[in-house]
Amino acid sequence: MKFVPKKFNVKYGANGGSEESRNAIEVLDGELKVKGKKFFGGETIGFVDIVLSCTTNWMEAIEEVLGIKICDSQNHPLINQWKNNFVELPIIKENLPPNQRLLRFYKRYRQSKLAAQSRM
Fold first, then answer.
1. Mean pLDDT throughout 67-85?
2. Global pTM value
3. 78: which residues sit within 8 A by CB, 6+ positions away?
């Protein structure tokens, strides 16, 4: 299951790979529905929750910079609720990097990759 497709391109986005990411999110949304729990591990966070949190935080920055939407609350309500539950936990809230910091980093990263591609 992949959130970031193989063909990801900093200039144009996912080149159709965002569909692959959406499919992965639908599977995860379905898992939350089947389990009927707050987190993937139940009522408390576990390994899967921690791993996925890294991906979802970066995904927000990438979506904003590239102007694409992969995960939205209307199509994936349970993932959205999971994410909200996760970031509200005190231990997570205290240690998660601010979205603006990730956004600044990804903008700079993308600009450097675009500049390198234009020199080729």
1. 87
2. 0.74
3. 29, 32, 33
